[in-house]
Amino acid sequence: MNDPIALPNISPAKLEDDNAIRRLAKEIWYLHYPGIITVQQIDYMLNQRYSLKKINQLIGSPSCTWFKVMIEETMWGFGHFEEDASIRSVKVDKLYVHPKTQGRGFGTTLMRFAETHYGKLGFAKIWLQVNRGNENSIEFYQKAGYEKENEVIIDIGQGFVMDDFIMSKIIS
């Protein structure tokens, strides 16, 4: 990332991006989540959600889209979105930007890109789950116009839970 003012290029991720997504997810999670969840839960969730098999399954799904955030030839972030056409709703399942690039608008650019993309496709609502202790991310989403809608505690196995806020935004 030689150019400090380089704008990100956002495009759909492909199957050949699976290793880069996995590598970036691991790096981001170990930098971001300690103190919010335990390292044991980080390990468990990464293995559960970011195996190459799981990433490839989701990239190949007709109801899912991955977008990657690129600067030059390097991936600095990604988003995974799950569509529910029956209720015109899209879930932001994963949205991560490397901490080295945070504050440069890459996450905001990715969210606006997704909102515009899905709005043009006729989706009315975009929503997500965010850990209640993840204050920086909650603030990011609130600044982007998302509002807390509900609270959930979901058992994800091995004695771990996701203690999350559900946040949403109307997009069309």
Notes on the structure:
The chain has a domain at 9-125: Aminopeptidase (3-Layer(aba) Sandwich). The relative contact order is 0.15. It is of the alpha+beta class. It has helices spanning 18-32, 39-49, 52-59, 106-120, 135-143, and strands at residues 9-12, 64-71, 74-84, 89-97, 125-131, 147-157, 160-170. The termini are far apart. The protein has a 7-stranded mixed beta sheet with strand order 1-2-3-4-5-7-6, sandwiched between helices. The radius of gyration is 16 Å and the shape is globular. 34% of the residues lie in helices and 35% in strands. The model has no long low-confidence stretch (mean pLDDT 95).
Spatial order of the strands forming the largest sheet = 1-2-3-4-5-7-6
- The CATH homologous superfamily of the domain at 9-125 corresponds to Gcn5-related N-acetyltransferase (GNAT)
**Percent helix range:** 25-40%
Separation of the first and last Cα atoms: 35 Å
Rg of Cα set: 16 Å
In the CATH classification, which architecture of the domain at 9-125 applies?
3-Layer(aba) Sandwich
DSSP summary, beta strand count: 7
Query: Helix- and strand-based class?
Result: alpha+beta
Binned strand content: 35-45%
Q: Secondary-structure element sequence?
A: EHHHEEEHEHEE
Number of helices: 5
Give me the CATH fold name of the domain at 9-125: Aminopeptidase
